[in-house]
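Hi X.,

You mentioned you wanted examples for the new student's onboarding notes, showing what a folding record looks like when two proteins sit in one file. Here is a clean example. The first protein comes first, with its sequence line followed by its structure tokens.
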Amino acid sequence: MANGIAVEQIESGQSGSAGAYGVWLKMAALGLMCLGVVMIYSAGSRVDREPQWFMRLSDPASKQLMFAMVAFVVLLFMADMDYGRFRYGGSVVRWPGTYLLLAAVLLLGLVYVPVVGQEVNGARRWIRLGPVTFQPSEFAKYVLVVFLAGVLAHARYPRRKFLIGLLPLCAAIGLLCGLVVVEDLGTAALMALVAAMLLVAGGARLWQMLILALPGVAGFVYMVIKTPYRVERITSFMDIWKDPQGSGYHAIQSLVAIGNGSWWGVGLGKGIQKYGFLPEDTTDFIFSIICEEVGLAGALLVMGLIAAIVWSGLAVYRRCGDDFGKLLTFGVVATIGLQAAINIAVATVSVPTKGIALPFVSAGGSGLIVAAAALGLVCSVAQKPKT
């Protein structure tokens, strides 16, 4: 009797410990969302604006606040859902992952339909659904994680066999990445990298991954050299001062914003780079605006919250006794962590300029809500007792 109580207490402690990481995940995501709304509001606080502009539903900060509220509700809903519903049980027809993959392919294909696809800043990455615009690549990158985690976790799937195991999965990876890469090389590269990490975590051998990496790297290089503006981004990264008003402009203005902020920043709403000097100040370069207005302290806060998500997610991964839950958690956390790292690297001119959002912070509803749903599934994994 006493031994039974002791075992029950240990199991309860394990479940409570894992559940605590789920709470940390929710708090970190909420903190990033709130910071994002504040910074988008601050980026729009200009001297030519009326003080009441924040209350207008058409303004960026108001939209972002609504997106953040919806995203957090979605996160809580997905956290309360049994993530096992997305587990692959051996039947392709009955598996939700099949239909998620088909939906992702369909949505990515609609981007290239002239009437439906929307071109913004020279890139066709959005589709318009009535009054709402949606970025399918944000949906696709997490669908790929669910799909791979489900298949690789299935006990009977030949994950270590090259021809009948890995190649079919690579076909799915190639299909999604191929549809994304035409207009968004950075997101396609992120998806491919996370997919490779999942294959390794799922049991693929090193020699198999090396063989699979060759066409992937070759395709990446080809997509770079065939597009002049991508080549220009790389050459300008080598010397951003060679063309300060052209190809090096974004990088220079980002560094100016970061330098202006110093330790504590110039103050919320008091930055100058948002006055048309730094393009995409609420999306791709919002980290630079954070550095300018809130300084190194704000930058460390953002990186700390991202690190909290990654650390808590990896803790859930280590404590999960279910292969599907482990791979799902690993894929979601890797996607969020790597995307944040790329965004910050671009803002600090550590890598060539690339348009990629800062998770939970950058303006936009598609990426925010989908990332919240994915993180909610990780919270669901955290709430399941270790078996």
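Then the second protein repeats the pattern, sequence line and then tokens:
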Amino acid sequence: MKISSLTLRDLEYLVAVANHRHFGRAAESCHVSQPALSAQIRKVEDFLGLQLFERSNRNVVITSAG
């Protein structure tokens, strides 16, 4: 995957998750479904080879890499 395959929307999703610390609320603020947002976040993490968010049932924490 090339860096050109990342979009501004991908960055918007990253910022939304970081701000809301919750995938569902981040998805709502971006007007997309939670599974779609999660898939895009995973795509970025896979591209970078880093885990940007630590996920749990209750919240999302930004990792040191994030």
